[in-house]
């Protein structure tokens, strides 16, 4: 059994009188790929935003390798080895591929106090990473993100997570609006992440994609966990759909 990497306990979130999450527990093992499923409004996005430091929890605790941590910002999450790839890729369309890969973490030329970005290093790393994530076209690293296809943008976001060697990679609807080949590239990345020891939380409306790559499925409904140990190898898609909708209750 893998060691526990992330443990979220009694996580609650209120927006005024609206309860988005109620005492949610979630654990992620080292090298484990967990599918997070639920209908719209189930609380999936809120939960990962709390884990990624994008929004504060109203209550509850987060532990990383047994140590309690405070997620006050996305910078806190990144420093704790958590990288999030949202369905909009969280990229800046006007900036180049290389700049987006290093956004906020740009290498500097010596002497560092002059605060000059090392564009040559960023370009070299970008070329190598694009090949690693399966982009076969010769796309210059100075190409603006806005000129890339949806799949290529996702690949750049994934490459960023790979380069900074995150312990946990959260993928929020990474296959949305992608073609077949681009989707297979994302799924291949998730499989490779497990083999290289990374943990992943995989969120997708397409249950077929989830079943192809995850070790375990967690289901949220109305802000609470209704199943947290669904084995995709012994459970059918139809059974999971019934859990999501509540028909199985």
Question: What would your notes on this structure say?
Answer:
The protein has 249 residues and is an alpha/beta fold. The protein has two domains: 4-81 and 166-245, P-loop containing nucleotide triphosphate hydrolases (Rossmann fold), CATH 3.40.50; 92-152, no CATH class. It has helices at residues 44-51, 74-79, 97-101, 119-132, 150-163, 180-195, 207-213, 237-245; strands at residues 4-15, 18-29, 33-37, 59-64, 67-69, 82-85, 168-172, 199-203, 216-221, 224-230. The strands form two sheets. The chain has a six-stranded mixed beta sheet with strand order 6-7-8-3-9-10, sandwiched between helices. The protein has a four-stranded antiparallel beta sheet with strand order 2-1-4-5, covered by helices on one side. The longest helix has 16 residues, at 180-195. The two termini are 30 Å apart. The model has no long low-confidence stretch (mean pLDDT 88).
Quick recap:
By secondary structure, the chain is an alpha/beta fold. It has eight helices and ten strands.
Radius of gyration computed on alpha carbons: 19 Å
Count of the domains: 2
Largest sheet: 6 strands, mixed
Q: How far apart, in Å, are the first and last alpha carbons?
A: 30 Å
CATH architecture level-2 label of the largest domain: 3-Layer(aba) Sandwich
Mean pLDDT: 88
Uncertain stretches of 5 or more adjacent residues: none
Helix content: 25-40%
Q: How would you name the CATH homologous superfamily of the largest domain?
A: P-loop containing nucleotide triphosphate hydrolases
Number of strands: 10
> How many helical elements?
8
N-to-C series of helices and strands: EEEHEEHEHHHEHEHEEH
């Amino acid at each position: 059994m893998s060691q526990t990497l992330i443990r979220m306990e009694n996580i609650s979130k209120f927006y005024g009188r609206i309860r988005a999450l109620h005492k949610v527990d979630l654990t992620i093992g080292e090298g484990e790929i967990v599918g997070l499923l639920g209908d719209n409004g189930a609380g999936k996005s809120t939960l990962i935003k709390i884990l990624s430091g994008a929004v504060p929890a109203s209550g509850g605790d987060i532990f990383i390798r047994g140590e309690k941590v405070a997620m006050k910002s996305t910078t806190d999450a990144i420093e704790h080895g958590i990288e999030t790839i949202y369905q909009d890729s969280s990229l800046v369309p006007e900036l180049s591929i290389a700049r987006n890969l290093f956004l906020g973490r740009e290498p500097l030329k010596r002497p560092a106090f002059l605060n000059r970005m090392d564009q040559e290093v960023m370009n070299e790393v970008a070329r190598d990473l694009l090949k690693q994530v399966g982009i076969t076209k010769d796309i210059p690293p100075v190409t603006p993100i806005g000129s890339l296809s949806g799949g290529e943008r996702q690949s750049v976001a994934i490459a960023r997570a790979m380069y900074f060697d995150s312990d946990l990679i959260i993928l929020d609807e990474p296959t949305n609006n992608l073609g077949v080949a681009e989707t297979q590239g994302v799924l291949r990345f998730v499989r490779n992440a497990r083999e290289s020891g990374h943990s992943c939380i995989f969120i997708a409306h397409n249950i077929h994609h989830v079943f192809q790559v995850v070790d375990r499925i967690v289901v949220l409904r109305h802000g609470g966990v209704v199943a947290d140990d669904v084995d995709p190898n012994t459970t059918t898609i139809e059974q999971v759909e019934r859990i999501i909708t509540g028909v199985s209750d």
